[in-house]
Amino acid sequence: MTEKHQAETGSQTKTDSLPVNKQQNNINPQPDAVPQTCVGSKAARGLQTNGGTKDDIERQAETSHTIEAKLNSGTRPQIEHSVRLINNESLSTDTNVLTLSAPELARTSLPGQFVQLKVKNYYLRRPIGVMSVDREQGLVQLGIRRVGKGSNDLCDLPVDSLLDVVGPLGHGFELPFAEGKDSTAAEEEYCLITVGGGTGLFPLIYLLEDAKKRGLQTIALAGFKSPAEAILLERMQETAGRCISSSDIGGLDFTGNVAAAFASVLKVVLSSTSCSQSGYSPDTFTAVLKGELTNKTDKRLCNGSDAFTAVLKGASVLADEAGDVPTAVHKNTLNFTTSDGKPKKLLVYACGPVAMLENIAVQCQEHNIPCQVSLEARMACGLGVCVGCSIPVYKLASLNKARSKADTSKTTYERCCYDGPVFPAERIVWPSQGGIW
Fold first, then answer.
1. Segment holding 427, helix H or strand E
2. Which of 275, 338, 346 is nearest to 311 (CA)?
3. Handedness of CA 318, 320, 322, 325 (dihedral sign)
4. In this predicted structure, what is the pLDDT of residue 13?
5. CB hemisphere CA count around 209 (13 angstroms)
6. Which end of the chain is more exposed for a tag (fewer CB within 10 A), N or C?
7. Exposed / middle / buried, residue 203 (Cβ in 10 Å: 0-12, 13-18, 19+)
């Protein structure tokens, strides 16, 4: 997750007196110099007026009871922390990673959550997504892009600075299998695909690290405008089962935008589930997407779309020119079917610009693949109080969010900071569907 749109005025006020409900999860990239959406905006009013009636009232009442119960039971989590900056690494001319010594924040943060950073001389805090957590060392990493005065000040902070942080906040990514459970079963049953555009990669790093601990097979897609803007690829290669990088102008694994790369990956994965040879090395997987194989003997099989067929026929384990099967081919093999030949369950997680997310969501819907998206929205309080970050969604058929399906005949608005920022993709009213953002 990355920094949200923020106004650049005034000095910061404390937020520890605001009501805080259940622990939440995530956040995305946005410039911080864009004027804040006011509470009286059309989007904000929609939360109260667009078909809001009985279901909304009952849900708000349920939330109020949850808050009251937690406060009375003494389980209210600490959300305001004073933390120390122990490292400030520049990834590029406009991107930094801050490493904080924050034991309590590290202990309670989950993939997809975000924090609100207080910036000297500015009224509003800056929402920054949690990029990585080391619970044993008590460390938290935050990725920040320079997009305004506030984010510039954060990127220029000297080591040993003290920061006032509110968090963790937001509802984030949901992953199968709890950490520490049977990793063999997890790897056997699921395959996760993450899709990130630019600084949308930040929250996906934490997601990939958590998925690795759970024993989940992962494929990470990272999209950039050019190779010069590529960041975090080495980090993702260390964490994911396979990392595929794309560039609009070429020079990386895939030429084209990351949504097009995702379409190619889906073609390989979905095709392999109906073929007896569905396991191949990471290098071969990349070669397939590029329309070639590293094995020169079999390159005649791998022109254009034939590349997919070549791998599915076993080209990934064919002998090289000397007649030997490369041992490296058998390492870190990606498999998309279970041991009994059934297709693995695919889960997609995406973070980036709205246009990219909509493209990914449409592709997932066509193939009936569950997809979670981390959305961009202007934020102020980060606690769901000001209603300034409302985004258009389809209403749920029932109050049980975990089991209810979206009712596409009814729309409403929900708060990105509190109800999200991660939502099931099928719930979002995208711009092409008439959603007002």
1. none
2. 275
3. negative
4. 38
5. 17
6. C
7. buried
Distance CA 29, CA 435 (A): 20
Kindly state the tokens that stand for 87.
């490292």
Give the tens place of pLDDT for each residue, 259-290.
Answer: 999 998 888 788 765 433 344 445 555 555 55
Q: Could you tell me which residue, 95 or 70, shows the higher pLDDT?
A: 95
Question: What DSSP element (H or E) covers 94?
Answer: none
Question: Rounded to an integer, what distance in angstroms lies between the CA atom of residue 330 and that of residue 134?
Answer: 31
Q: What CA–CA distance (Å, rounded) separates 103 from 81?
A: 10
Tokens of 358: 């909509």
Mapped onto helix, strand or coil, the DSSP state of residue 164 is strand
Tens of pLDDT along 389-420?
A: 999 999 987 666 655 678 888 999 999 999 99
Single-letter amino acid, residue 5:
H
- Structure tokens given for 404: 């209810």
Q: What is the CA radius of gyration of the chain?
A: 22
Residue 75 structure tokens: 């389980």
* Secondary structure letter of residue 128 according to DSSP: E
Mean pLDDT for the stretch of residues 366-385 = 91
What is the domain partition of the chain in residue ranges? Answer: 275-333
H or E, element range at 59:
helix 53-73
Query: What's the token pair of residue 128?
Result: 């920054």
